[in-house]
Write a structure and sequence with these properties.
By secondary structure, this protein is mainly alpha-helical.
Length: 160
């Protein structure tokens, strides 16, 4: 029966959302600890889980359409609409609990994503400020291959 397959898919999707939450928390720990060396690995892992979540979402959509047709409702309904239209109160309760849990997981994921984005922005800003402070001390090469500040920039041509 399609409803059993749908329930199994929803459990797998919830496990993937838990894994995504974990990977985002790992990424956040790397960011707060300043371990930028490992960020590409963490980001790649987040992207891999997101790909799996996307595939699970597609499978869920297909299975919802199959169950909806069996139950005589529109095949393009949402999971919440399917739960509301369930002919059996037990399945309505199961589907509603999946909807509630997935909404909570999605909310937590959004918060983590936003926090990680703020950490990344702060790290970029800090790096830019550090580089800006280093420029005068490091100097640049002039046309003769010498380093250091040999002449200051002028807004007015002093030859006149």
């Amino acid at each position: 029966m399609a409803i059993h397959e749908l329930s199994a898919l929803l459990w797998r999707e919830r496990e993937l959302l838990d894994l995504l939450t974990f990977k985002l928390e790992e990424e956040q720990l790397l960011l707060t600890a300043g371990k930028s060396r490992w960020l590409p690995h963490g980001t790649r892992e987040v992207e891999q889980v997101l790909d799996r979540v996307s595939k699970a979402g597609l499978a869920r959509t297909v299975e919802i359409a199959a169950v909806a047709e069996q139950w005589g409702i529109s095949p393009d309904c949402s999971l919440a609409e399917l739960a509301a239209a369930a002919p059996d109160s037990a399945w309505a309760e199961v589907l509603t609990s999946h909807v509630t849990a997935m909404r909570q997981q999605t909310s937590a994921i959004k918060e983590l994503r936003d926090a990680n984005e703020q950490f990344l922005r702060a790290a970029v800003r800090s790096t830019q400020e550090t580089l800006a402070d280093l420029k005068p001390a490091a100097g640049t090469y002039d046309s003769h291959g010498r380093t250091g500040e040999t002449s200051a920039a002028h807004l007015v041509d002093r030859q006149f």
